[in-house]
Design goal:
The complex is a heterodimer of chains A (165) and B (206).
Chain A (H helix, E strand, L loop, with lengths): L6 H8 L5 H13 L1 H27 L2 E2 H43 L1 H13 L14 H16 L1 H10 L3
Helix pairs in contact in A: 2-3, 4-5, 5-6, 6-7
Chain B lengths: L2 E2 L16 H13 L2 H21 L4 H17 L10 H22 L11 H7 L10 H7 L3 H12 L4 H8 L3 H21 L1 H9 L1
Helix pairs in contact in B: 1-2, 2-3, 3-4, 4-8, 8-9, 9-10
The chains are: A mainly alpha (165), B mainly alpha (206).
């Protein structure tokens, strides 16, 4: 605060939004304080210049219809790509759930969940959350090997078959 | 060819916040229905402002358009988060600012960018109609003198006409802090303008 006027009061006054009491106090102060008057002149002048420069920027940075529509197409294209990604991830989740359902009756629910996690961890996916169609095959190979060790080759064949996309 | 300037009508020099009736209706319609048609109308009304924000924050035209599209994807996805149209611009520019920060972080870390579906050469070349370098504007000179956080405030307040309340939402800061920072940016700019040849000439005339 300088000369009894806070920064917020100055700002409101410059915006012409100060309360009547504040405005009167500042204007009464100007009569006896050249320093504050000059400060006000300087800052309000800068604000005017800023407003004019902003107006110039608003008019200078426009978009033609053609650009606008191309950008809108781009947005819908991105939304479609994201939707497609979401569908694929849902398919992967569904396939993982199926494998767990096939494994659980033979080795127990906890061991089934652990087998899936171990297969993911030891494959390029590194975790179940990161399993995608791109790294599905090595993941399924690891899971088949784990199933063979736990329940034998016949059961491993069933896992391999169930895991095919 | 028609051009979109994307602004709210000027009143006291600063475009008024959230009061442009047509624009407000478009926003309300989108928030109420979430329909694709309403989204397209919103895009037409607001796109130019987002792109301009990114340009004035120093991005080239292609990156500004890329980030603008990212913001609209998020707006479409997260439309359920917002109910009141009055808070729309604060919410929108909060998303835009996060997008900008993420972009800069990625640039600084030299990270790999994820590319979206290509539009093809024919469309891609027609997207870049603005020169990479912005036209010379007084505002750019003024902004250069400010800190990045102050530039955000000045662009959103004076160019985009956000109210102090909307700025508080966009920048996640208390109202008093917003006013205090705006005042300090004004003070800083006034010193710079006063020291410039034009400013000195004006002082001599006065």
């Amino acid at each position: 605060m300088k000369h009894g006027i806070t920064e917020l009061e100055w700002n409101d006054y410059l915006d012409d939004r100060a309360a009547a009491e504040v405005r009167d106090r500042i204007e009464a102060h100007f009569i006896g304080c050249l320093e504050c008057w000059e400060f006000y002149e300087q800052v309000s002048g800068a604000t005017e210049e800023l407003v004019e420069a902003s107006e110039e920027a608003r008019h200078g940075l426009t978009l033609e219809d053609r650009q606008l529509h191309l950008m809108l197409r781009g947005v819908f294209s991105r939304l479609r790509v994201e939707d497609a990604g979401g569908t694929v991830q849902a398919q992967v989740r569904g396939r993982l759930n199926l494998l767990e359902t096939v494994l659980a009756p033979f080795c127990g629910a906890q061991a089934a969940a652990s087998a899936l996690q171990a297969a993911a961890k030891n494959s390029p996916a590194r975790s179940l959350e990161q399993v995608t169609p791109d790294n599905w095959e090595p993941f399924l190979e690891k899971l088949t090997a784990i199933a063979a060790a736990m329940c034998g080759e016949t059961f491993a064949g069933l896992i391999r078959e169930s895991g095919q996309f | 060819m028609p051009k979109h300037a994307g602004g709210r009508p000027a009143g006291d020099g600063i475009p008024p916040a959230g009061t442009y009736v047509e624009e407000k209706q478009v926003i309300e319609n989108f928030l109420a229905t979430g329909a694709e048609e309403a989204f397209c109308a919103l895009f037409e009304a607001v796109c130019v402002r987002l792109r301009r924000y990114f340009l004035l924050r120093g991005l080239d035209a292609a990156t500004a358009e890329d980030l603008t599209q990212n913001v609209f994807v998020k707006v479409y996805r997260q439309k359920g988060e917002l109910r009141a149209a009055d808070h729309f611009y604060g919410w929108l520019f909060a998303i835009a600012r996060n997008e900008l920060i993420s972009y800069w972080r990625l640039e600084q870390s030299g990270g790999e960018k994820v590319e979206f579906e290509s539009l093809g050469d024919r469309h891609a070349s027609s997207l870049v109609t603005e020169p990479e370098v912005l036209p010379a504007m007084r505002l750019m000179d003024l902004l250069k003198a400010l800190e990045p956080a102050e530039r955000d405030l000045v662009v959103l307040r004076f160019v985009e006409g956000l109210s102090y309340e909307e700025l508080a939402v966009a920048l996640r800061l208390p109202l008093g802090t917003i006013k205090w920072r705006i005042f300090n940016a004004r003070k800083k700019l006034s010193r710079i303008i006063a020291a410039s040849p034009e400013g000195r000439a004006r002082q001599r005339i006065n």
